[in-house]
Description:
The structure holds 3 protein chains of 3 kinds.
Chain A: H1 2-19, H2 22-33, H3 41-52, H4 57-67, H5 71-80, E1 92-97, H6 100-118, E2 131-136, E3 148-150, E4 153-155, H7 160-175
Helix pairs in contact in A: 2-3, 3-4, 6-7
Chain B: H1 3-18, E1 22-27, H2 30-33, H3 37-51, E2 57-62, E3 74-77, E4 81-83, H4 91-96, E5 107-108, H5 113-116, H6 134-139, H7 144-152, H8 155-165, H9 177-186, E6 193-198, H10 207-214, H11 216-230, E7 234-239, H12 244-260, E8 275-280, H13 290-297, E9 321-325, H14 326-330, H15 332-338, H16 340-344, E10 354-361, E11 367-372, H17 377-384, E12 394-399, E13 405-408, H18 418-423, E14 432-437, H19 442-456, H20 462-479, H21 485-501, H22 505-509, H23 512-520, H24 522-530
Parallel strand pairs in B: 1-2, 6-7, 6-9, 7-8, 10-14
Antiparallel strand pairs in B: 1-3, 3-4, 4-5, 10-11, 12-13, 12-14
Chain C: E1 22-27, E2 30-35, H1 40-46, E3 70-73, E4 80-81, E5 92-94, H2 98-114, H3 129-137, E6 153-154, E7 160-163, H4 172-181, E8 186-189, E9 196-199, H5 216-220, E10 226-228, H6 242-253
Parallel strand pairs in C: 1-5
Antiparallel strand pairs in C: 1-2, 3-4, 3-5, 6-7, 7-10, 8-9
Helix pairs in contact in C: 2-3
Amino acid sequence: MEALKETASKAQDETSKRADDPRWRRVNRVMRLHGYRPNALIETLHMVQDTFGFLEMEALKYVAKTLQVPLSRVYAVATFYHFFSLKPPGKHTCVVCMGTACYISGAAEIMHEMQEALHIEPGETTADGAISLVTARCLGSCGLAPAVVLDGEIKGKMTPAAVLETIERWQADASG
Amino acid sequence: MRLDEIREIARIEADREDGYRHRINVCVAAGCLSCQSASVKDAFEKEIAKRGLENWCRVKGVGCLGLCSGGPLVAIEPAGILYHTVSVSDVSDVLEALDDGPLDRLVCSGETPFFKRQKKIVLENCGRIDPERLEDYIAAGGYQALHTALTLMTPEEITREIEKSGLRGRGGAGFPTGLKWSTVAKADNETKFVICNADEGDPGAFMDRSVLESDPHRVLEGMALAARAVGANHGFIYVRAEYPLAVKRLKKAIAQAEHAGFLGNNIFHTPFRFDINVRLGAGAFVCGEETALIASIEGQLGRPRPRPPYPAEAGLWGYPTLINNVETLANIVPIIREGSQWFAGIGTEKSKGTKVFALAGRVNNTGLIEVPMGTSLREIVFEIGGGIKEGKQFKAAQTGGPSGGCIPEHSLDLPMDYESLAQVGSIMGSGGMIVMDETSCMVDVARYFMEFCRSESCGKCVPCRVGTTQIHELLGKITNGTGTAGDLTKLEELCDLVKHTSLCGLGQTAPNPVMSTLRHFREEYRAHIEDRFCPAGVCRMGRGKEGE
Amino acid sequence: MTIPAYPTFPRGDSELGKPVGILTLKIDDRDVSARRGETILEVARENDIFIPTLCYLEGLSSLGACRLCLVEIKGVTKLLPACVTPVRQDMEVVTDSERLRRYRRMILELIFSERNHVCSVCVSNGHCELQTLAQKLGMTHVRFDYLYPRLAIDASHERFSIDHNRCVLCMRCVRVCDEIEGAHTWDIMHRGISARVITDLNQPWGESETCTGCSKCVQVCPTGALSEKGKSVAEMVKHKEFLPYLQIMRRNER
């Protein structure tokens, strides 16, 4: 019984600790809006990622406890859906669209050049944490294929050279 | 809100519009936004203010104008002029030319087949209304169909109209919409749900995104009509998280509709109540499958379960659930407004109405198009699409994305309808159409789609999880020049297995791109295997396995 | 071309006049009777008709995932999994045909090609459901390239270990832990060919906060993926008898 009380008060502490942080308040708000029901899991993970940039282990534990979802289920959901990331993103992000229209218009070539230039695979971040290389299934900008998103800005009709130019600028930023 | 109030809003809006001599509509859908159309819109506003033309001209951000390859697009009303590739530096020239006719260097002729061959039903408001203003939608006749249905029709009559219209699901398989509705309507339960499937996962498809970004209220009204017909009081829109603009506009539209009383309790002073919530997808193509989509809304893993029971009997949280795709729901309002006979008069015998295609790939005009069902592929590619880029040779058109197939040159006169597409081994799918020329290798294209299915497979059933991986391996061998004749046999056997034994639609259709290219472009497979040669020059032969 | 429709089952007039809840159907040309709500698999087993299964386990919820129990039904174009398809009046089921045999063999080939299933060095050799199925269905060799992704062995638990190379992703461990033990220690991370069973937040099993050490997962595992420590080749014999017993106990409690 004592042990149970202790756990309960620990959980209480954790909740109140997080209540002081405006970022966690956003997350808590989503869970409250859904009545702390387990079906709020995906919506909550969206908010965690939106707020912190990725899903940290501690965050997964906290969400699991609050929504009363098994730990392994939270981890399963976080890895099943490719929109979620368990690793922090780089300072800059380069998303290469691999949709069909982009693929037949040379997206693979762009991706190949990026891999060579950054020495990383898609889904990875450079060792210095400067640049993440990501693929997208389809951005829906097929009319402007091939499309690349550089730090949130969609650029249409791209070429390897044009993307490399930005990448080199980012690299110069990081080393300078 | 009452009908006269709606009419009053429509009248005020019309008067306001008529008060301007020139109305400048700048496309602010995602395609044009990625060509900096937002700054073009700003530039117009500043320039008009600078010249003191505010009382003569107004600038409006509108949804997709269609010709995405010509972005940013700007339409001038009421003159009916469309300008392409307008940059900030063109703004003053466009304003100068307002009174003396079009600016020749930027104008798109409205007489071109790209515009003339189209018939807009789903997209009728796209590019005309400001998607973020409810008043614009009302001025275009919005929410009157809902009023008619709630005050003058019984739920059975609504369903019967949809049945008689011959509308079929636009999400891919083409199941008759009216039959789906009546199945849910007959289910005996107090609680029912309507779900709008906006998880547009096909690579190369952006119809749903454009509709949601350009005319969100139409989808809400369609859902409310569906809910009334089947007896549901709650709705969900399951939309891709990758479409932030569509999500933002949907949420805004829902708030507006709730505020105006088109959603919520006692809609149009009737006992009917209906609310809509948005749920975000999280990057899983398989969630386009009905049972996986339901699981995902429930916060679960998006793994499909065997059907029956169908969602119409036991769907969201076990309650009867109607799931329709965005384009299907966007067709409901015009059917109720114009009547089923009008709709049934468009299209072919078994495929009624129009179909929106996202035309992309190696054609001159890429973008969003809407044509009557039964329009030939030749018309779409060579007239609307303006032919192949750089004068190259047409090779194939891919429809249906990773579940579809490639249509070869000798089938160019094929009418675009559900049955004809199935006959050549493809499917209508959700409407992505990628045109390929001689620079595309069909084996490589098949490998591309199989890579997609392999990584999107949820992993629950063995044939899809391991079968797609093995097919992908075989195609990898063939495209790097190490394939054998025996591999081709294995490939065909595996395709047959995966198609017939997989649990859900993803697996059952995953072999289609391979089977259709084997059927129409077998010669290319043969060249890769026997001659170790890629006719299109895409595959790097003789390199062995990647990295070796 | 027919319009794709929800599969419907032919419904004869003979349903009239039968006692409520009892219906008759044909399995492999044999007339059998069944209770309404029973699955094809249950009725087949009651009548000693063999249908191969791997992910199915009596006492756990059914998934329809391994696809080995697919059967043909007259009038239905699709093959349907016997473990989740309820019987209908006058249904005609075929559980064994050349086509089904071919598909079942190929599905086994795919499973064998997915990970490392070399029996001669396995703790479950001779007591393995996958091995038995391969013998029974005549799968003698694998024509597809072995994928063999060298996966880790987690031996961090004091009494058990998991060898992912032997796992067939049947989800029996996930289900028994969730449905019977109530701990939900197991789940599956990632998807498709990258899917793996995990404990808690993909932590070593021995560090799991939720595992009760009850060993139910080990006992229901059809292969040598989950085993007791200290067992050598061919020594791991599983005991699943507890499952129907626990099921009855749970039902009586309610």
